[in-house]
Design goal:
253 residues; alpha/beta; Rossmann fold; seven-stranded parallel beta sheet; 7 helices; binds beta-L-rhamnopyranose
C-alpha cells in the first residue's frame, strides 16, 4: 500500500496508460480522480473498476488544452477528497502524419493537448500542493520520443521533449516547496493512440524486434513506475527521466 491516504489525479485516465496508473494507484490505497476528454463510458467504467475493488474515485470531463480545465480538475479533488498529494499528467495525442503536408490544425492541436495541457495541469497541481504546504509529487508522461524521432511524428516528438524539459525546470522551481517533478518515458506501449499505426504488421514486427525484452509494452507496465515516483520510496527523486521501454532506446545492435 505505497499510496495509503494519498489523493492522486491522472489526466487521460479513462483508458490506456492513464487508466492503468489510476487503477494501480487505487490498489495501493490512493483516492483517485481521473480527467477524460470525451469517453464517458470508459471514464465511468474506470471509476467502477476502482470502486469494485474497494477504492474511491471520480471522473471529470475536461479538454486539457483549455487552461481552465486544470484548476477545475484540481478543485474537484479538493472538494471531494480535501487535498492533492500526487499528480500524473498523462493525457496526450499522436495523430501520425507526414511532415511536408502536416496541416496546421493537426500540429497546433497536438502542441496544445500534449504540451500546453501538461503545463496548465502541472501548474494547477503545484499551486494546490504549495497551498497545502506539505510537498507532493508531479509526474508527467513524456516518451522515448523525447529522445529520438519519428518520421510521422514531427509534431509529436517536440511535445514529448518539451514535457521532459518541463519536469526538469519545475523540479528546480518547486524543490523549495518539497514538490518532486519527474518524467516517465514509455517506449512503444499498445494503446488507442497507436493501434492504427501498429495494425501495419510490418511496422509492428519492426518495433518488436527493436525491444530486448521481446514484446511491445502494455499500459500496466507503466503503473509500477508511476506509483513508485508518486510514493515516498522516491523521496529523493526529482528532475529524473525514467525510461519504461523494454530496452528499446539503448538497442542499437
Ligand atoms: C510513443 C512512441 C510509440 C508510438 C506512440 C504513439 O511516444 O513514439 O512508438 O507508438 O508514441
Amino acid at each position: 500500500m505505497l499510496l495509503k491516504d494519498k489523493v492522486l489525479l491522472v489526466t487521460g485516465g479513462s483508458k490506456g496508460i492513464g487508466r492503468a496508473i489510476a487503477v494501480g494507484a487505487a490498489r495501493h490505497g490512493a483516492r483517485v480522480g481521473i480527467n477524460y476528454a470525451g469517453d464517458e463510458t470508459a471514464a465511468q467504467s474506470c471509476v467502477a473498476e476502482i470502486e469494485a475493488a474497494g477504492g474511491q474515485a471520480f471522473a471529470l470531463k475536461g479538454d486539457v488544452s483549455d487552461a481552465a480545465s486544470a484548476p477545475a480538475f484540481v478543485a474537484e479533488a479538493v472538494k471531494r477528497f480535501g487535498r492533492l498529494d500526487a499528480f500524473v499528467n498523462n493525457a496526450g495525442i499522436c495523430p501520425f502524419h507526414a511532415f511536408l503536408d502536416m496541416p496546421a490544425d493537426v500540429m497546433e492541436r497536438t502542441m496544445r493537448v500534449n504540451l500546453h495541457g501538461a503545463y496548465y495541469m502541472c501548474q494547477a497541481a503545484a499551486n494546490q500542493m504549495v497551498t497545502q504546504g506539505e510537498g507532493g509529487s508531479i509526474t508527467a508522461v513524456s516518451s522515448i520520443s523525447a529522445l529520438v524521432g519519428g518520421e510521422f511524428q514531427t509534431h509529436y516528438t517536440p511535445t514529448k521533449a518539451g514535457v521532459l524539459s518541463l519536469m526538469q525546470s519545475t523540479a528546480i522551481a518547486l524543490g523549495k516547496h518539497k514538490i518532486r517533478c519527474n518524467a516517465l518515458l514509455p517506449g512503444t506501449i499498445l494503446t488507442d493512440i497507436n493501434k492504427d499505426d501498429l495494425a501495419d504488421t510490418e511496422k509492428r514486427d519492426y518495433m518488436e524486434k527493436r525491444i530486448p525484452l521481446g514484446r511491445l509494452g502494455q499500459p500496466d507496465d507503466l503503473a509500477g513506475p508511476a506509483i513508485f515516483l508518486a510514493s515516498e520510496l522516491a523521496g529523493y527523486v526529482t528532475g529524473a527521466a525514467l525510461l519504461v521501454d523494454g530496452g528499446m532506446f539503448v538497442n542499437l545492435q
